[in-house]
Design brief:
four-stranded antiparallel sheet, 11 helices
Amino acid sequence: MRRRLLAKIQCPHCWEIFQSEDICWVASHPDLRGDSVLAVDSPTRFVPSRFAVSGEALDAFGAPCRHIACPRCHLVLPSVLLEHKSRIMSIAGTPGSGKTYFLTAASWQLRQTLDLGFALAISDADPESNQGLVRNEQLMFLPENPDAFVALEKTQLEGTQYSTVQIEPGQTITLPQPFMFTVRPTARHVNARGAEILTEVLCMYDNAGEHFLPGADSLTSPTTQHLAQSKNIFFLFDPTQDVRFRSRLHGLSEDPQVGQVLRAFRQDNVLLEMAARIRRHAGMPADEKLRQPLTIVVTKSDIWQGLLPGIDIKNEPYQFEERASGLILGRVKKDFIEMVSQKIENLLAKTVPEFVSAVNDISAQALYIPVSATGGSTTLDPKSGLLKVRASDVKPAWVTVPFLYEFSRWGKIVGSIRKEGATAE
């Protein structure tokens, strides 16, 4: 069966866009080592001139090769990128805002719900790149001891989550390791016949929050430049990092993040810094609004949801239908999500007005979504200083909503509904 290759491919590591014929292959023969861009002992990257009957490139010693790489940064790429377009969904926020917990809970919940409710298959496009995320999923949702208290390790500024390359001689740069997922319609999807066209590769990054602070962006550490390439931006706002919110929460929650000042940041400042980077790297005017949809993910809703009386976010805002043919139609309840968004925006406007002002200044299409990655309050471990939660108590709420709302904007992969009984969009 012939493979249909894309004309252009974007590297999820360095974000270079290149022609498919320029793809590099990774030499297999053990004597072909010492790549010019990577570490000295790395296998050589090369543009092939000979191929095996199976389609694999042959290296200089005639060994068949199995891995492809970016022609600019020379980092390995999953072969699925040759056939399906990629979509960067960027997650940003201050240190401690909950990015790692949110990404871990969302990826796990999407694996659990997409197939059953929306007839979508989600899989690791590159299992090796996703190992860190899979370990976090195991720790939170499949622990050996469900009664144990767990805590996810804070994302570091350097280490295994980043790659070091030397694209220009004498200039070493650090790039973030992407998490990549393939999302494709299954045979039960109402648009299964268009699965080949509708399939996409999602690329996400778990940056350290310090990378988003003013002054952290540099030529040698362009770890957040995916923001300018992203199709969707999720900015995590943490109410417990604001003294005014914590004041309102006294008496409503006994979570240590309310009673103790663990961390505090001017989140509007970080949001504006993010927008400035996007404009700078995308070559946009300084006052132009962002072109990407902006979702304000308001984290730790289990702590502050008491400030939204009358709003029940225990149930997921989806409607499911199985037709007589056996096909599945899962739809997002946009009316309800947007109503909740407006309530949260009003709450933030009264409590942190400068943040809402910053959102309106940079985006014309912002959405506010409440999430809880754990579903319950945490405990502060005095020995380690880490916030922990009992594994058996972890019950995420609305962590898939930011993703499925965006999926519904793509067209035919996830349907949406404006009110009960309405026709799906």
